[in-house]
Amino acid sequence: MGVYEARVISHQKLQESAYLLELHCPEIVEKAQAGQFVHLKCSETLAPLLRRPFSIHKTDAARGSLSIYYAVVGEGTDLLSKVSINEQLSVLGPLGKGFQLTKGKNVVVIGGGMGIAPMLFLAEELSKNDNKITILLGARDKEGLLVKDSFARFTNDLQLATDDGSLGHKGTVVELLKESLQDNPTMLYACGPLPMLKEVKRLSEKEGIPCQLSLEARMACGIGACLGCTCKGKGEKYYPKVCSDGPVFWAEEVDLSE
Ligand SMILES: Cc1cc2nc3c(=O)[nH]c(=O)nc-3n(C[C@H](O)[C@H](O)[C@H](O)COP(=O)(O)OP(=O)(O)OC[C@H]3O[C@@H](n4cnc5c(N)ncnc54)[C@H](O)[C@@H]3O)c2cc1C
Ligand code: FES
């Protein structure tokens, strides 16, 4: 892990408030694992003071670049959306614990909303290890699934769901998961909004399928020093830090009930 000045190589507006940002940062690319994140200064100015965390969406070793896929939700991401090519951003990373990869297994990858972001890097890594991969992506509408084509080359089974039915199954990605369970997967990987994660966790426990969940929390330091990002762990007085004990946890490690 280190702090690097990364040059913006490309910055693409994908939809009304979602962007794909590619940063030249070979030092992070060399070490990054799927599920890890970077802590980014969103502009060259001082404000906002705190870095913002973003999952590594994909890496390109030949270009020495990593990409993040992000939505504009507040001050930091709004500033980030205005960053131009060749500007330098301060990047801390790679951070956190990533996904544990399977080999030769039947796995389901589930991404909901901006939780789709870390799943592309994961799908690529899983595809290198002879896994049979089902990918389930869900969003409010088809605009939220504009990155779907990048996933297609890592699977023969890409299924989509939208709340409004504008693309794929009309309904939730959890409904797609329920059908996929008939294929007896041996590992579930999920990232998305809390209600989705709760349902994935419940189904994994009911069916006895190992499951890894990537969680989100407001973060300050990003490196386990400030206790600003704790979540509720399973068991008395266990409050793991999302930034350094996660963001990826085994489903049974965390209590998502509150
Ligand atoms: C490990 C990790 C990986 C992430 N990866 C991505 C990613 O790949 N793409 C992406 O778009 N976003 C991702 N996020 C969320 C992203 O960090 C926040 O959207 C961003 O920090 C918001 O900054 P802001 O200054 O624009 O918004 P703020 O002004 O800080 O907040 C705006 C609104 O967003 C909410 N919010 C801010 N941060 C979070 C958070 N961490 N969790 C839940 N709600 C939050 C606030 O409560 C507020 O309502 C990730 C978060 C974590 C912890
Ligand atoms: S953000 Fe400081 S401990 Fe996690």
Describe this structure in words.
The chain has 258 residues and is α/β, with parallel strands linked by helices. It folds into 2 domains: 2-95, Beta Barrel (Elongation Factor Tu (Ef-tu), domain 3), CATH 2.40.30.10; 106-214, Nucleotide-binding domain of ferredoxin-NADP reductase (FNR) module (Rossmann fold, 3-Layer(aba) Sandwich), CATH 3.40.50.80. Helices cover 19% and strands 32% of the residues. The chain contains 6 helices and 14 strands. It has helices spanning 26-31, 75-81, 119-127, 148-152, 173-180, 194-207, and strands spanning 2-15, 18-24, 37-40, 52-55, 58-60, 65-71, 88-95, 106-112, 132-139, 157-162, 169-170, 187-191, 211-214, 248-250. The strands form 2 sheets. Strands 4-3-7-1-2-6-5 form a 7-stranded antiparallel sheet. A 7-stranded mixed sheet has the order 11-10-9-8-12-13-14, with helices on both faces. A hairpin with a 4-residue loop joins strand 5 (58-60) and strand 6. The radius of gyration is 17 Å and the shape is globular. It starts with a strand and ends in an 8-residue tail after the last strand. The structure holds flavin-adenine dinucleotide and FE2/S2 (inorganic) cluster. Flavin-adenine dinucleotide is lined by residues 37, 48, 52-55, 68-71, 73-77, 114, 117, 216-219, 247.
